[in-house]
Predict the 3D structure of the following.
Amino acid sequence: MKKLIAFVVFGFLSLATYAQAEMTFEETTIDYGTIEKGADGLRVFKFTNTGDQPLVISNVRSTCGCTVPSKPTEPVAPGETGEIEVKYNTKLVGPIRRTITVYSNAVEEVTPLKIKGNVSE
């Protein structure tokens, strides 16, 4: 009987360690291409929680103040989709090369996203 109880407890603990959230992005790089100065700088990274636990995004950061990201405020349930919006300041003329870092409870706790392109006069 003790062996059976130990086996059951071990089985539940094993399953608990494999239950995690997982973020799968449609794309991890968005190319703005060449856009005009003052054009709409808003782009969206779409993702799905392909794990079996709720996905909680704790923080989203950019490499500079010219790029402002926003994240979902509520957990994303397994199988559901979410979005991370990125607003680039298109008043700045020149090449766009920025990284947005997503922090979450997913299997990969830190996920880099990239934007690139060029703003012309």
Q: What stands out?
A: The chain has one domain: 2-120. The chain has a mean pLDDT of 90. The first helix runs from residue 2 to 18. The beta strands are 23-25, 29-36, 42-49, 57-62, 67-70, 81-88, 94-104, 110-120.
